[in-house]
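Re-run with default settings, no changes from the original entry. Doing this only to confirm the output is reproducible before filing.
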Amino acid sequence: MKSARKNKSLTIDKNEFGILSLIKEGLLSSCTHLMTQKESEEVLKTGKFNKENLPYPLSFAPKIKEETLKELRAGSRCELVLDDVKVGHIQLGSKFKNNHNFSTIFSPNVCSIENKSGICLSGEIEIYDCEIKKLKEDFHRTKKNLNAKKITALVSSFDPLHRAHERIFRWTIDKADLVVVFLVESFNTNGFDFELKQKYLKRFIQSYLPPDRIFVFPLKHIDIFHAHLNPALESILAKNLGCTKLVVGQLHTGLGMFYDENQPKTILDEYSKNYGIEVIVLPEFVFCNECRMIVSTKSCPHGSHHHMHYRSDSLKDLLRAGIIPPAVFVRKEVSSMILASLFPNRFRNMQKIYNNLFPTEGILEYKKDEEFYQKLLEIHQMSYMV
């Protein structure tokens, strides 16, 4: 597309573009437009829109100068510009004052007063080349081909993908016709690149799971899910795509788990009942030295002093320091892919080191860094010298 003109245009960032795409495709509500003042106030007052639970109004206060917004007129067409390219437009319905006392869907994880814009826009949205729409269509084709009725959703950054994730995957697949994996952005600057996460997740699924029964739905550049502070939003997303269940772990940041009459409760119980999606809270999975396998803390009779925990931050710190986590934590294929990405061309004479240490076929074979790490991990797993 040609670069957009500056008049009657709004420059948006990738996060805003992603959220606008989700709204347009009806994945955040039956509302597929930017809300009017009356509709926003209804959500803020009741927590619902057209009898749907909705924790935040779908109102949009662009982070640009108010002088620019004041030039826009109701009924006019406002082009959306991302990286100097037209990516869509808003058919402007109305403008109203932003209520800084409440958060919106565009900033649910931050204090609302940080949003300095004073004007919200309402109107119909059009996205010209919508990746979310393509993914939604691909999902429905997959669902139709499988005739899937029981569809379970997982939402995670897989940062990194570890053995506890694998345990959750297998438990979920056993009980569903189709599993939808919403791959979200990492919530801090220490997270791995989104493309790298897509790469090792795809490799894992292709190698160790039935790939025809898993649909990966990447949510790149969309920040509203990245801190796991909004499990209600995850439920809304899963439900509106067509999922019947959402699986979360009990350590989910925003779950708010508590006990009532010795029964575990979460903030999603009432929501899932009203909205029509079953939310399953799985216990924490650990590796028990006594059981010698991955178990849940709920089913294992041994104390926590026998448990090795799958804590993403610590595993990430090891990998960023160039240390290979034991295979009991992370599969060698995943660790090798991450290390090869973090430390490209780490060994000046890697080929010589490989040939000197490991058995070969007797001919010169070029080995990638990733293959070197995998072989090294295989040697780490040998126990006959221990």
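Confidence is low (pLDDT under 50) at residues 1-6. The radius of gyration is 24 Å.
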